[in-house]
């Protein structure tokens, strides 16, 4: 027995040294990539063209006009550099997907504190944009889990931004900057311990008042019926059919459901009050059907589902289809040929103070009418931090409303008429809108919503030659 223990101990030591060697190799490779990137930057920095990245994938839903840009080859910045299991941190390259990181952290009994819902979302994208998930009531938005970032600024300098160093202004201003101040080369984030399974409880409500009241009580106590919870989000199917979905990590499960093939996760809320998933399947529960947007490509039809195949039932495949539609507009041509009513695409995520959530929902039901709606609570975790370009009131519980579909557009309406109404109501109710999709703000409105003064100060320091596009130009004008 002692001999076996010594052999096992020896194998563990070899394994640890092998992991250390792999991580050291990754760090060396990261430095090599930086050297090559700086050479590229040197060749384009004096061009009159704006500088952009050459990315493999995107989760942005605005079609940009980028015909005359100089592209930096950053696709290779997609590795996990190091995982400190004891310290519960991970250091990854900016274009590393959450899927790639989660594969490695789960193997160590850990996960990022906040994991956005789709596998192809990158850490750099979620942080320079705005990322959220069902743990955000406890840990905040994705950028609140960041400890430090290595950023290539518009000056060609690589800086390390932390909340306590000379680049703390960039650290706090990087979220919601969408690559207009710089690109993240590496990011260090917090991890949390996990258990193998998640027990899910579905709570049904028949009126908005009780729904939002219960949501607030659960988030304030971080518990339900005296039991602590780890995750909470929800779905509104109709005014009389509203669900909160509570998740608790557990060590064992009597069964586990599978929503990666024929079964559809969001439909299960309507038919059962309790469910169990592996922690991996819980994290990616929305990816198989792109929440519920797979219906727009017929992928919820059982026959079509089999034709597509389970390997293509995912956000990466659907995003490719979205790209084809954006470029060639086949569905728009079909709708015109069939004389179908004109539709306005409405793809948005907005955060409203919970006190205004019922009022916003009433407006949305009366003026827009899209269903289902995804619900996700979020609260800023550190009241001392001022996230320059995406300010939420510290301590305030917000509710994220996610809606991704289209609504009828009447003759005479200007482009983005309904989207514009949503933006105006969100502003009136002191909420915030994510900028990953189409926006229709005037420059003055945009500056007020997203702190133009603070942005200009950051831009003048980190991109004075304006080698990267400006935030308004990029997110509203689609430059």
Descriptive account of the structure:
- The protein has helices at 2-44, 98-106, 123-128, 136-139, 168-173, 208-221, 265-268, 279-283, 302-308, 315-328, 330-337, 354-367, 417-428, 443-449, 452-462, 471-475; strands spanning 50-53, 69-72, 80-84, 89-93, 110-112, 146-153, 158-161, 182-193, 197-205, 223-224, 227-228, 231-238, 241-250, 274-278, 343-353, 373-379, 397-408, 432-433.
- With 479 residues, it is α+β, with helices and mostly antiparallel strands.
- It folds into two domains: 2-193, Uridine Diphospho-n-acetylenolpyruvylglucosamine Reductase, domain 3 (2-Layer Sandwich); 197-443, Vanillyl-alcohol Oxidase, Chain A, domain 3, CATH 3.40.462.
- The strands form four sheets. Strands 14-9-13-12-16-17-15-18 form an eight-stranded antiparallel sheet. Strands 3, 4, 5, 6, 7 and 8 form a six-stranded antiparallel sheet that branches.
- Strand 12 (231-238) and strand 13 (241-250) form a beta hairpin.
- Helix 6 (208-221) runs antiparallel to helix 12 and helix 12 packs antiparallel against helix 13.
- The longest helix has 43 residues, at 2-44.
């Amino acid at each position: 027995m002692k001999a076996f223990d010594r052999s096992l101990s020896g194998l563990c030591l070899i394994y640890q040294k092998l992991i250390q060697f792999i991580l050291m190799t990754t760090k060396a490779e990261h430095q090599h990539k930086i050297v090559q990137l700086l050479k590229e930057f040197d060749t384009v920095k004096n061009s009159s063209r704006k500088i952009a990245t050459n990315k493999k994938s995107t989760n942005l839903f605005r079609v940009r006009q980028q015909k005359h840009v100089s592209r930096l080859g950053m696709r290779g910045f997609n590795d996990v550099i190091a995982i400190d299991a004891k310290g519960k941190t991970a250091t990854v390259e900016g274009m590393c997907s959450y899927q790639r990181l989660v594969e490695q952290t789960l193997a160590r009994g850990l996960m990022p504190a906040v994991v956005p819902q789709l596998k192809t979302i990158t850490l750099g994208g979620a942080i320079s944009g705005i990322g959220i998930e069902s743990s955000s009531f406890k840990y905040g938005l994705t950028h609140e889990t960041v400890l430090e970032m290595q950023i290539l600024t518009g000056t060609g300098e690589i800086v390390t931004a932390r909340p306590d160093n000379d680049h703390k202004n960039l650290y706090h201003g990087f979220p919601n900057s969408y690559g207009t101040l710089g690109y993240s080369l590496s990011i260090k984030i917090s991890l949390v311990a996990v258990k193998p399974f998640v027990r899910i409880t579905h709570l049904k409500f028949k009126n908005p008042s009780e729904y939002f009241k219960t949501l607030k009580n659960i988030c304030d106590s971080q518990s339900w019926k005296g039991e602590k919870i780890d995750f909470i989000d929800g779905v509104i199917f109709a005014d009389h059919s509203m669900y909160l979905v509570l998740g608790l990590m557990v060590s064992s499960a009597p069964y586990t459901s599978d929503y990666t093939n024929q079964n559809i996760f969001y439909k299960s809320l309507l038919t059962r009050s309790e469910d169990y998933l592996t922690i991996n399947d819980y994290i990616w529960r929305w990816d198989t059907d792109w929440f519920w947007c797979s219906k727009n490509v017929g992928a919820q039809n059982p026959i079509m589902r089999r034709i597509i195949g389970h390997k293509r039932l995912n956000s990466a495949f659907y995003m490719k289809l979205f790209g084809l539609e954006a470029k060639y507009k086949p569905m728009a041509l079909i709708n015109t040929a069939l004389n179908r009513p004109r539709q306005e695409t409405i793809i948005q995520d907005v955060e409203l103070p919970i006190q205004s959530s019922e009022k916003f929902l009433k407006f949305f039901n009366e003026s827009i009418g899209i269903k289902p709606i995804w619900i996700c609570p979020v609260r800023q975790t550190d009241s001392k931090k001022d996230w320059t370009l995406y300010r939420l009131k510290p301590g305030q519980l917000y509710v994220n409303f996610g809606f991704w579909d289209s609504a009828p557009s009447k003759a005479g309406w200007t482009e983005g008429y309904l989207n514009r109404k949503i933006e105006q109501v969100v502003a009136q109710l002191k909420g915030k809108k994510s900028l990953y999709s189409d926006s229709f703000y005037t420059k003055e409105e945009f500056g007020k919503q997203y702190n133009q003064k603070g942005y200009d100060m950051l831009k003048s320091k980190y991109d004075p030659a304006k080698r990267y596009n400006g935030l308004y130009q990029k997110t509203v004008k689609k430059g």
